[in-house]
Amino acid sequence: MKIQIDLKSALVGLALGAGIMFTLGAGASNTNGRYQISSFGNGTGGGAAYVLDTQTGETWGADMHLDWNPKSEHFWGVK
Questions:
Q1: Which 3 state secondary structure label does DSSP give 33?
Q2: 25, CA 20 to 30 Å: which among 37, 44, 74, 75?
Q3: pLDDT in tens, 27-70
Q4: Alpha carbons 20 and 24: distance in angstroms, whole number
Q5: Is residue 13 part of a domain?
Q6: What is the mean pLDDT of the chain?
Q7: In this structure, what are the phi and psi dihedrals at residue 8, rounded to the nearest 5 degrees?
Q8: How far is Cα 39 from Cα 64, in angstroms, rounded to an integer?
């Protein structure tokens, strides 16, 4: 079985595909590395965790204990 490909059509399709990819990629924002996390423990079940948004400067954090709840308002409130 022989497959015949029209070279002109293949090149036009390749050029259109590359153009669409570049167009979509140019509009995308790169948020890689936007959020940073820092945590530490004191060895007795306590410690703290902080999340920093490097784009806006907002910081979230909480003291962690054995009864720590990550869904609490205290943790997610902006510092």
A1: coil
A2: 37
A3: 666 667 788 888 777 666 667 778 888 888 888 877 666 555 65
A4: 6
A5: no
A6: 76
A7: -65, -45
A8: 10
SS3 content of the chain, % helix, strand, coil (to 5): 30, 25, 40
* In-domain check, residue 63: yes
What CA–CA distance (Å, rounded) separates 76 from 78?
Answer: 6
What is the Cα–Cα distance from 48 to 62, expressed in whole angstroms?
6
Does residue 3 sit within a domain? no
pTM of structure: 0.41
Q: Residue 60 has which token pair? A: 């979230």
Domain count of the fold of the chain:
1
Place of tokens 């509009």: 27
Rounded Cα distance, 68 and 49, in Å: 11
Which H or E run contains 59?
Answer: strand 59-64
